[in-house]
Specification:
162 residues, mainly alpha, Arc Repressor Mutant, subunit A, two-stranded antiparallel ribbon, 6 helices
Amino acid sequence: MTQDPSTGALLREVARLHVQLQRNCVAECSGTTATQCTVLTELGRSGPLTLAALSRRIGFDKSWTSRAVENLVQEGLVEKVPSQTDRRTVRLSLSSLGQARLQDLNQMLNGLADQALERIPTEEHASVRTALEWLQKALLDLAEDKQFPPAEVEGGSSCTCV
């Protein structure tokens, strides 16, 4: 007898499938890598950021983020703007070309979500949306409660997730 997956396992599987579909769609349809899409999306969501702040927000190593940003600068999608208050600091922002690419990516990814929703009975659409709104709020609240990176303890780090 097969046991139903826990809510946590179900949520992780939904998130995994959604991200996998998005990555495949972005790679096949836009010529943008998943990393580039992540950087563009975060800069579009957050506005200008330093490299360190961007790296923390997307969860990539700073050197990995730097390489991804350099490629986007070379393509004309991201601009580096020196800080007016600290000459050592550079703020990253989307260029007009980057904003256009992000708009295209968002339309494509929203279309993918619409295609998934079409596979759910129409009378359930409002319930799905309401559940997603509650889940988003809960995850945002949880993210605000958690302090990352993990707190250091003797012999290693201790996860603050539990």
